[in-house]
Amino acid sequence: MDPRAQPSRSTRPSMRPVSGTYRHSRASACIVHTPSLEPIATADEEEEDETICESSDSPRTSPLPTHGQESSGSYMDDSLPPYKVALAPPTDGVGLFATRAIAKGSVVLGEAPIFTQPPPPGRTNSTVMAALSQCTRDEQRQYFNLTNAYKAPRPGKRELLPALGIFETNALPCGKARGGRRAGIFLVAARLNHSCQPNVERSWDESAQRMTFRALRDIVEGEELCMNYVDVLGTRAQRMEELRTAFGFECACVACAMDGEDLAASDRRRTTVRRLFEEVALCGSEPTLGLRKVKLALRLLKEENLVHYEASFCFDAFQFCTLVSDYANAKLWVRKAWEASCNTSGLDSPASRAFKMYWANPRAHELAGLLQHATLHGPD
Description:
Elements: E1 22-24, E2 30-32, H1 45-53, E3 83-87, E4 94-98, E5 107-111, E6 116-117, H2 125-132, H3 137-144, H4 162-170, E7 172-177, E8 180-184, E9 193-194, E10 200-205, E11 210-215, E12 224-227, H5 236-247, H6 260-279, H7 287-303, H8 310-323, H9 327-345, H10 350-360
Parallel strand pairs: 9-12
Antiparallel strand pairs: 1-2, 3-4, 4-12, 5-11, 6-8, 7-8, 10-11
């Protein structure tokens, strides 16, 4: 494995720079990152549903956009996986590389864990060894061929026994457990290296007990497939320090390879997006200002070639529009949030289903009509 990909993925920080689900504004309204699946009943809901179902911009059984659409199989239209394991220059490690062009939103990999473990202190070298004893010989061989970032002590990290060290290096969070989240080993996904400009995103399917990895953008043949281990909105110095402290390696991705004014501009864009993410939470009583901040954040994310936070910002814009009863623009924003969510987590994810519901009936949102009527703006 590439030395860039040696961290304990089970302890990666959240991609969100804030810990709460709800973004509280100065008004009584709450700007919510993750939409609820429970709509608010409205007196004219039946009439609204009939009108919306006939509208040309409302969701149908077969979604209009092509982004995020996927076949019932795991790998687009081909029976062979769209990746291969190969050396990842300039290091001596390996990574996953695209064997053909992969469209944005397509499933790159779907994988079930060979075993899972509870969060510490219930996870020990003995519990990992016991789980491994239930795996096949080939799975055991592949497991012990994975990187161990805990072979020797380093600042803030103690040396671990081999089985536990490999688990902490390669495990991904997958489902809830008492006291925290379970983590599991995904033998193929363990080869995904880190990038601060990732092209792959993961999402856990609780019902199927599988992790799905989707393309965040169009990927060309031969391109390395990477996800991010840390928050992408820090400066390069912040990201480097976090990776070095938590995981023991330095990133060599395209974003971290910048220097001079290019690096300074990239740092400014990412830190501005992080600041805007917080500031939007304070705009519940000022939807016009909040929407301006959303548009700026989306433009900066596009300049950084980052998809992260797109669905969240678009859902924020939807909520600003619903606050002032601007349902036409609200539908445009939540459709954009739905498309972004489909690309990263699939059509059937809870967020995608909620966005689709609000696209059909924006009046179902709890913030609908709380402020004086106004007309805002849709996406650029």
